[in-house]
Amino acid sequence: MTKSTRLMVMIPARRGATRLPDKPLAQIAGEPMIVHVWRRAMEADLGPVIVATDDDEIVASIAAVGGRAVLTDPGHPSGSDRIFEALQIVDPDGQVQIVVNLQGDLPNLEPAHIRRCAALVLQGGVDIGTLVAEIHDETERNDPSVVKAITDFEEGADEARALYFTRATAPTGEGPLWHHIGIYTYTKAALTRFVSLPPSGLERREKLEQLRALEAGMVIRVARVDTVPIGVDTPADLDTARAAFAKTHGK
Fold first, then answer.
1. Domain stops at, among 109, 133, 155
2. Domain-terminating residue out of 85, 109, 133
3. Is the peptide bond before 144 cis (omega within 30 degrees of 0)?
4. Fewest Cβ atoms nearer than 10 Å: which of 175, 180, 191, 206?
5. Res 199: pLDDT
6. pLDDT, mean over the chain
7. Is residue 48 included in any domain, yes or no?
8. Greater confidence, 163 or 19?
9. Up-side HSE of residue 222: CA atoms within 13 Å toward CB?
10. Distance from C-alpha of 243 to C-alpha of 249, rounded to nearest angstrom
11. Same domain, 101 and 120
12. Per-residue pLDDT tens for 193-221?
Protein backbone atom coordinates (compact mmCIF):
# COMPACT_ATOMS: atom_id res chain seq x y z
CA MET A 1 0.00 0.00 0.00
CA THR A 2 1.42 3.36 -0.99
CA LYS A 3 1.32 6.48 1.16
CA SER A 4 -1.31 7.91 -1.18
CA THR A 5 -3.64 4.99 -0.51
CA ARG A 6 -5.62 5.12 2.73
CA LEU A 7 -7.21 1.88 3.86
CA MET A 8 -9.52 1.34 6.81
CA VAL A 9 -10.88 -1.90 8.29
CA MET A 10 -14.47 -1.58 9.50
CA ILE A 11 -16.42 -4.14 11.53
CA PRO A 12 -20.22 -3.82 11.64
CA ALA A 13 -21.69 -5.18 14.87
CA ARG A 14 -25.43 -5.24 15.50
CA ARG A 15 -26.62 -6.35 18.91
CA GLY A 16 -30.12 -7.42 17.93
CA ALA A 17 -29.42 -10.74 16.17
CA THR A 18 -32.45 -13.02 16.42
CA ARG A 19 -30.79 -16.44 16.35
CA LEU A 20 -28.15 -15.49 18.93
CA PRO A 21 -29.20 -12.47 21.01
CA ASP A 22 -26.37 -10.15 22.13
CA LYS A 23 -24.07 -12.00 19.73
CA PRO A 24 -21.21 -9.45 19.57
CA LEU A 25 -20.92 -9.55 23.38
CA ALA A 26 -20.95 -13.36 23.66
CA GLN A 27 -17.98 -14.45 25.74
CA ILE A 28 -15.25 -16.52 24.11
CA ALA A 29 -12.11 -17.28 26.11
CA GLY A 30 -12.94 -14.51 28.54
CA GLU A 31 -13.59 -11.71 26.05
CA PRO A 32 -16.55 -10.56 23.94
CA MET A 33 -16.57 -12.01 20.44
CA ILE A 34 -16.39 -8.54 18.90
CA VAL A 35 -13.08 -7.97 20.72
CA HIS A 36 -11.64 -11.13 19.17
CA VAL A 37 -12.64 -9.93 15.70
CA TRP A 38 -11.14 -6.49 16.43
CA ARG A 39 -7.89 -8.20 17.50
CA ARG A 40 -7.72 -10.21 14.26
CA ALA A 41 -8.18 -6.97 12.31
CA MET A 42 -5.46 -5.21 14.30
CA GLU A 43 -3.10 -8.15 13.74
CA ALA A 44 -3.64 -7.80 9.98
CA ASP A 45 -1.87 -4.41 10.33
CA LEU A 46 -3.51 -2.81 7.31
CA GLY A 47 -4.62 0.50 8.81
CA PRO A 48 -7.08 1.91 11.35
CA VAL A 49 -9.76 -0.49 12.63
CA ILE A 50 -13.22 0.89 13.47
CA VAL A 51 -16.19 -1.00 14.91
CA ALA A 52 -19.52 0.36 13.66
CA THR A 53 -22.33 -0.54 16.02
CA ASP A 54 -25.77 0.34 17.32
CA ASP A 55 -25.02 -0.32 20.99
CA ASP A 56 -23.25 1.55 23.81
CA GLU A 57 -22.06 -1.63 25.50
CA ILE A 58 -20.28 -2.74 22.32
CA VAL A 59 -18.65 0.69 22.12
CA ALA A 60 -17.50 0.30 25.73
CA SER A 61 -16.11 -3.21 25.17
CA ILE A 62 -13.95 -2.00 22.30
CA ALA A 63 -12.85 1.12 24.20
CA ALA A 64 -11.81 -1.11 27.12
CA VAL A 65 -9.14 -2.77 24.96
CA GLY A 66 -7.94 0.49 23.44
CA GLY A 67 -9.94 0.38 20.23
CA ARG A 68 -12.44 2.74 18.64
CA ALA A 69 -16.11 2.11 17.97
CA VAL A 70 -18.75 4.53 16.72
CA LEU A 71 -22.50 4.53 17.18
CA THR A 72 -24.62 4.32 14.03
CA ASP A 73 -28.32 4.23 13.20
CA PRO A 74 -29.88 1.03 14.62
CA GLY A 75 -32.20 0.83 11.63
CA HIS A 76 -29.60 0.01 8.96
CA PRO A 77 -30.69 -2.93 6.77
CA SER A 78 -27.15 -4.25 6.26
CA GLY A 79 -23.60 -4.14 7.52
CA SER A 80 -22.57 -2.29 4.37
CA ASP A 81 -24.96 0.54 5.17
CA ARG A 82 -23.69 0.63 8.75
CA ILE A 83 -20.02 0.90 7.81
CA PHE A 84 -20.83 3.56 5.21
CA GLU A 85 -22.40 5.76 7.88
CA ALA A 86 -19.46 5.11 10.20
CA LEU A 87 -17.05 6.06 7.44
CA GLN A 88 -18.70 9.47 7.12
CA ILE A 89 -18.22 9.94 10.88
CA VAL A 90 -14.57 8.92 11.14
CA ASP A 91 -13.42 10.19 7.73
CA PRO A 92 -15.41 13.37 7.06
CA ASP A 93 -12.77 14.66 4.62
CA GLY A 94 -13.08 11.55 2.45
CA GLN A 95 -9.42 10.53 2.51
CA VAL A 96 -10.04 6.79 2.88
CA GLN A 97 -9.95 5.12 -0.53
CA ILE A 98 -10.33 1.43 0.35
CA VAL A 99 -12.55 -0.15 3.01
CA VAL A 100 -12.39 -3.71 4.34
CA ASN A 101 -15.80 -4.85 5.63
CA LEU A 102 -15.03 -7.52 8.21
CA GLN A 103 -17.98 -9.38 9.72
CA GLY A 104 -18.18 -9.20 13.50
CA ASP A 105 -18.95 -12.91 13.90
CA LEU A 106 -15.68 -14.41 12.60
CA PRO A 107 -13.60 -14.59 15.78
CA ASN A 108 -10.90 -16.92 14.45
CA LEU A 109 -10.42 -15.38 11.01
CA GLU A 110 -6.75 -15.45 10.08
CA PRO A 111 -5.16 -11.99 9.81
CA ALA A 112 -3.33 -13.17 6.68
CA HIS A 113 -6.69 -13.75 5.03
CA ILE A 114 -7.77 -10.19 5.79
CA ARG A 115 -4.59 -8.98 4.08
CA ARG A 116 -5.26 -11.29 1.13
CA CYS A 117 -8.74 -9.85 0.69
CA ALA A 118 -7.40 -6.30 0.77
CA ALA A 119 -4.69 -7.12 -1.78
CA LEU A 120 -7.31 -7.96 -4.40
CA VAL A 121 -8.44 -4.33 -4.48
CA LEU A 122 -5.10 -2.70 -3.75
CA GLN A 123 -3.74 -4.11 -7.01
CA GLY A 124 -6.36 -2.13 -8.95
CA GLY A 125 -8.98 -2.87 -11.59
CA VAL A 126 -11.46 -4.36 -9.11
CA ASP A 127 -14.49 -2.90 -7.36
CA ILE A 128 -14.84 -5.52 -4.62
CA GLY A 129 -12.60 -8.31 -3.35
CA THR A 130 -13.63 -11.36 -1.32
CA LEU A 131 -12.45 -14.86 -0.40
CA VAL A 132 -13.37 -18.48 -1.08
CA ALA A 133 -12.18 -21.89 0.06
CA GLU A 134 -12.72 -25.23 -1.62
CA ILE A 135 -15.53 -27.34 -0.17
CA HIS A 136 -14.32 -30.75 1.01
CA ASP A 137 -17.20 -31.67 3.34
CA GLU A 138 -19.96 -33.39 1.35
CA THR A 139 -22.69 -31.98 3.61
CA GLU A 140 -21.61 -28.42 2.78
CA ARG A 141 -22.16 -29.01 -0.93
CA ASN A 142 -25.93 -29.27 -0.42
CA ASP A 143 -26.33 -26.93 2.57
CA PRO A 144 -28.13 -23.71 1.56
CA SER A 145 -26.54 -21.88 4.49
CA VAL A 146 -23.16 -22.41 2.80
CA VAL A 147 -22.97 -19.82 0.03
CA LYS A 148 -21.15 -20.95 -3.10
CA ALA A 149 -19.15 -18.64 -5.33
CA ILE A 150 -19.41 -19.45 -9.03
CA THR A 151 -15.98 -18.88 -10.48
CA ASP A 152 -13.32 -20.70 -12.45
CA PHE A 153 -9.65 -20.53 -11.51
CA GLU A 154 -7.22 -20.95 -14.35
CA GLU A 155 -4.66 -23.68 -13.76
CA GLY A 156 -2.19 -22.53 -11.10
CA ALA A 157 -4.11 -19.31 -10.35
CA ASP A 158 -5.40 -18.35 -6.93
CA GLU A 159 -7.52 -15.39 -8.09
CA ALA A 160 -10.50 -15.23 -10.43
CA ARG A 161 -13.53 -13.10 -11.24
CA ALA A 162 -16.76 -13.96 -9.44
CA LEU A 163 -19.55 -14.73 -11.88
CA TYR A 164 -22.35 -15.44 -9.39
CA PHE A 165 -23.09 -16.42 -5.79
CA THR A 166 -25.77 -18.91 -4.81
CA ARG A 167 -27.16 -21.05 -2.01
CA ALA A 168 -27.73 -23.86 -4.48
CA THR A 169 -25.26 -26.66 -5.19
CA ALA A 170 -23.53 -25.16 -8.20
CA PRO A 171 -22.06 -25.38 -10.72
CA THR A 172 -23.01 -28.86 -11.86
CA GLY A 173 -20.55 -31.31 -13.36
CA GLU A 174 -17.16 -32.43 -12.11
CA GLY A 175 -14.90 -29.99 -10.37
CA PRO A 176 -14.57 -28.11 -7.09
CA LEU A 177 -17.23 -26.04 -5.37
CA TRP A 178 -16.17 -22.86 -3.60
CA HIS A 179 -17.37 -21.84 -0.14
CA HIS A 180 -17.74 -18.08 -0.02
CA ILE A 181 -16.20 -16.38 3.03
CA GLY A 182 -18.21 -13.26 3.77
CA ILE A 183 -15.63 -10.53 4.10
CA TYR A 184 -15.28 -7.81 1.47
CA THR A 185 -12.87 -5.12 0.42
CA TYR A 186 -14.43 -2.18 -1.43
CA THR A 187 -13.05 0.79 -3.21
CA LYS A 188 -14.65 3.86 -1.66
CA ALA A 189 -16.41 4.53 -4.97
CA ALA A 190 -17.82 0.98 -5.07
CA LEU A 191 -19.09 1.14 -1.49
CA THR A 192 -20.70 4.53 -2.12
CA ARG A 193 -22.44 3.24 -5.23
CA PHE A 194 -23.44 -0.03 -3.61
CA VAL A 195 -25.30 1.51 -0.68
CA SER A 196 -27.08 3.93 -3.06
CA LEU A 197 -28.62 1.07 -5.06
CA PRO A 198 -31.93 -0.55 -4.14
CA PRO A 199 -31.93 -4.30 -3.38
CA SER A 200 -31.86 -6.20 -6.67
CA GLY A 201 -34.13 -8.98 -7.84
CA LEU A 202 -31.61 -11.79 -7.49
CA GLU A 203 -30.42 -10.38 -4.19
CA ARG A 204 -33.95 -10.63 -2.81
CA ARG A 205 -34.44 -14.09 -4.25
CA GLU A 206 -31.18 -15.63 -2.98
CA LYS A 207 -30.97 -13.35 0.08
CA LEU A 208 -27.38 -12.52 -0.88
CA GLU A 209 -26.37 -8.88 -0.78
CA GLN A 210 -23.36 -9.29 -3.09
CA LEU A 211 -25.65 -10.09 -6.02
CA ARG A 212 -26.71 -6.43 -6.02
CA ALA A 213 -23.17 -5.50 -6.97
CA LEU A 214 -22.95 -8.10 -9.73
CA GLU A 215 -26.31 -7.09 -11.18
CA ALA A 216 -25.08 -3.49 -11.26
CA GLY A 217 -22.04 -4.54 -13.30
CA MET A 218 -19.44 -4.24 -10.55
CA VAL A 219 -16.33 -6.41 -10.76
CA ILE A 220 -15.92 -8.79 -7.82
CA ARG A 221 -12.65 -10.70 -7.65
CA VAL A 222 -12.08 -13.67 -5.36
CA ALA A 223 -8.93 -15.17 -3.91
CA ARG A 224 -8.85 -18.72 -2.67
CA VAL A 225 -7.54 -19.58 0.77
CA ASP A 226 -7.12 -22.88 2.59
CA THR A 227 -9.50 -22.59 5.53
CA VAL A 228 -12.97 -21.29 6.35
CA PRO A 229 -13.29 -19.38 9.64
CA ILE A 230 -15.95 -20.28 12.18
CA GLY A 231 -18.99 -18.11 11.58
CA VAL A 232 -21.04 -17.65 14.76
CA ASP A 233 -24.77 -17.37 14.05
CA THR A 234 -26.33 -19.82 16.52
CA PRO A 235 -25.71 -21.12 20.06
CA ALA A 236 -24.21 -24.27 18.50
CA ASP A 237 -21.78 -22.14 16.48
CA LEU A 238 -20.81 -20.32 19.67
CA ASP A 239 -20.04 -23.64 21.37
CA THR A 240 -17.88 -24.59 18.39
CA ALA A 241 -15.98 -21.30 18.57
CA ARG A 242 -15.45 -21.64 22.31
CA ALA A 243 -14.13 -25.18 21.88
CA ALA A 244 -11.77 -24.05 19.11
CA PHE A 245 -10.36 -21.25 21.27
CA ALA A 246 -9.99 -23.60 24.25
CA LYS A 247 -8.03 -26.01 22.09
CA THR A 248 -5.85 -23.28 20.59
CA HIS A 249 -5.34 -21.02 23.60
CA GLY A 250 -5.89 -23.39 26.48
CA LYS A 251 -8.76 -21.36 27.96
1. 109
2. 109
3. no
4. 175
5. 95
6. 94
7. yes
8. 163
9. 26
10. 10
11. no
12. 999 999 999 999 999 999 999 999 999 99
Q: How far apart are CA 114 and CA 122, in angstroms?
A: 12
In 3D space, the residue among 38, 44, 50 whose CA is nearest the CA of residue 8 turns out to be: 50
Task: Convert the pLDDT of each residue in 113-161 to its tens digit.
Answer: 999 999 999 999 999 999 999 999 999 999 999 999 999 999 999 999 9
Q: Which domain holds residue 105?
A: 1-109
Buried b / exposed e along 51-61 (16+ C-beta atoms within 10 A): bbbbbeebbeb
Strand pairing category for 68-71 and 49-53: parallel
Are residues 127 and 49 located together in one domain of the fold?
no
Within 13 Å and on the Cβ side, how many CA atoms surround 4? 0
- pLDDT value, residue 18: 76
Q: Are 8 and 96 in contact (CB under 8 A)?
A: yes
Same domain, 128 and 175: yes
* Domain shared by 28 and 126, yes or no: no
Q: How many structural domains comprise the chain? A: 2
Which ranges of 45-187 does DSSP label H, i.e. alpha helix?
Answer: 56-63, 79-90, 111-122, 138-141
> For position 247, what pLDDT does the model report?
87
The pLDDT score that the predictor gives to residue 232 is 94
Q: Tell me: do 141 and 71 sit in the same domain.
A: no
- Report the distance separating Cα 196 and Cα 81, nearest Å: 9
- Tally of CB atoms within 10 A around 94: 11
Angstrom distance (rounded) from CA 22 to CA 14 = 8
Q: Do residues 25 and 125 share a domain?
A: no
**Beta bridge pairs of residue 129:** 185, 221
CA–CA distance from 65 to each of 106, 112, 137 (Å)?
18, 22, 37
pLDDT per residue as tens digits for the range 169-190: 999 999 999 999 999 999 999 9
- pTM, whole model, 2 decimals? 0.93
